[in-house]
Amino acid sequence: MFRSSVLLLPVCRNTITWLRGTVVNRIIPFDGMIGFHKVNALGALLFVFMHIVGHMFNFYCITTQPPADSGCLFREVSWESDFLPSFHWWVFKTVTGVSGFMATLITVAIFLFALPFARRLNFNLFWYTHNLYPLYYFLMLLHGAAQLVQQPIFWLYFLGPGCLFVVDKLASYSVLSRDIQVVEAQILPAGVLKLEFHRPKDFKFISGQWVRIRCNAVSKYETHPFTITSAPHEKYLQLYIRVCGPWTSKIYDMYKAAVDNGDDLPTINVEGPYGEAYQQWSNFHISILIGGGIGVTPFVSIIKDYLHQCKVNESLIVRKLYFLWICRTQKQFEWVIDVLRELEEADQEGHLEIHVFITELNENFDLRTSLLYICERQFHKINGCSLFTGLQAPTHFGRPKFETIIRQIMYRHTEEKIIAIFSCGSHVMTGGVFEAIEAIRAAPRPEDPVLNHKSLNF
After folding, report:
1. Are residues 165 and 305 in the same domain?
2. Same domain, 170 and 208
3. Who contacts 51 (Cβ-Cβ below 8 Å, separation ≥6)?
4. What does DSSP assign to residue 333?
5. Which pLDDT belongs to residue 264?
């Protein structure tokens, strides 16, 4: 009962976003809320099975007792003197039994379709089963309402988290109900859709935050999260959507058809903004941003905001940003080259340093790519830009050695006490960053800064 109620707290997104801006953020690790939600869900599932096993022993004992003795045990239930209730009767012919049986089925369905491989195979099943939670909590309240064993007490656990969750949801729906006109849609390489739309009234956000969007032309019920790539000072909001499932495929095809035919662009609904660990980037003197593939999106917003603040905010804490972008192929970064080029042009004082890594190619000094490496370095030396990207940022081949890179940055800034590292990408990439940080922490030097790491996996 306790775990089922606590499950609601990590998904009160508006409340958590607000708390991130308070002193509570120093005490409670809000970055681990989804992990906390998963741990509580697993604990709830284990206790459900313990509850079932206990009742199976109870049913066996009860069905072997004389009817008169059972009548003394359950004063809220009455039956004929010669009637002996069976296991089937307890489960399927009482309010407590039926509600418990249905709540168990919903629990198992939610848990199974929330497993990582099930989400990858069919995200819609995960979405629909997770949205059975209102029925689940109704059955939990109904389970004890018949007072078969004792007075109902679940509502005591549920009252606080339930009320907070309802208020939080109403706040989200009040925003989500507004249709937002899309100003521009661009079809970019590597199956990426760029949407630019009007900023909702009173919409305030911090760079690094994200929103959930819904497109009624695709589905009236599904909402999906995307990071805002606009900076807070910009007039319009921008999102980059990469095709990676049924919903994103549909919205990509729909806007592509509208652009090709010159039709009016469908409207969207926006819910948020919601907080993320990245919004803490401005609290550190030196920050390292590591993005993999589409994981570049939160850092585009941060870099835009940072360069803008460098011009207008003299009291800015951040002194330098390092941005490492890891892509598998050259085609995967073509869609955002123009954005990075604009950021480089805006950086007149050298506050930003960008490095691009293409992991499909072999290491820099592999014989098969040595000629390519020599051409890239010579071209960059003569022209001041990369042969592959046209950016001032150098292009590297092979997987980045995160430990070496981070140590080099640390040696540059030994005067700093803390260097923040923010990573966004696949589990493999963020796991590599984490392992590199652990290796550095295992062999520290007295003058080394402390590493503060925040990551987001997808």
Report:
1. no
2. no
3. none
4. G
5. 85
Q: Which residue has the tokens 């990075």?
A: 340
Output 188-192 pairs: Cβ under 8 A, ≥24 positions apart.
188/240, 188/334, 188/335, 188/336, 189/331, 189/334, 189/335, 190/242, 190/331, 190/332, 190/334, 190/335, 191/242, 191/243, 191/252, 192/240, 192/241, 192/242, 192/243, 192/294, 192/335
Sequence-ordered alpha helix ranges (H) in 152-232 = 154-176
Q: Which two tokens stand for residue 150?
A: 């004792």
Among 155, 211, 201, residue whose Cα is nearest residue 178 = 201
**Beta-strand runs (E) in 69-141:** none
Summarised one tens digit per residue, pLDDT across range 380-412 is: 677 767 766 667 777 777 788 888 888 888 888
Which pLDDT belongs to residue 2?
A: 92
| pLDDT tens-digit series, residues 321-354 | 888 888 877 666 667 777 777 777 777 777 888 8
Report the candidate in 109, 106, 114, 88 with the shortest Cα–Cα distance to residue 143. Answer: 106
Closest CA to 288 of 418, 379, 441: 418
Which 3 state secondary structure label does DSSP give 421?
A: strand
In this structure, the answer to whether residues 227 and 300 fall within a common structural domain is no
* pLDDT number for residue 120: 77
pLDDT of residue 134: 92
Range of the domain at 124: 2-176
Same structural domain, 319 and 449 = yes
Instruction: Give the position of tokens 């949801």.
Output: 169
Closest by alpha carbon to 270, among 169, 198, 188, 183? 198
Is 386 strand, coil or helix?
coil
Tell me the Ramachandran region of residue 262: left when phi exceeds 0, alpha when psi lies from -120 to 50, beta otherwise: left
Do 167 and 198 belong together in one domain? Answer: no
* 126 and 199 co-located in one domain: no
Q: Please say whether the beta carbons of 70 and 29 come within 8 A.
A: no
Do residues 322 and 291 touch, judged by C-beta distance below 8 A? no
- With tokens 């905001």, the residue in question is 305
pLDDT of res. 230: 87
- My answer on whether 253 and 376 are in the same domain is no
| Count of structural domains within the chain | 3
Per-residue pLDDT at 458: 46
Asked if residue 420 lies in contact with residue 280, where contact means CB atoms within 8 angstroms, the answer is: yes
pLDDT of residue 330: 66
pLDDT-flagged residues of the chain (< 50):
458
Burial label for 325, CB within 10 Å (0-12, 13-18, 19+), is buried
* pLDDT of the residue at 6: 92
Q: How far apart are CA 432 and CA 324, in angstroms?
A: 13
Contact yes or no for 31/277 (Cβ under 8 A): yes
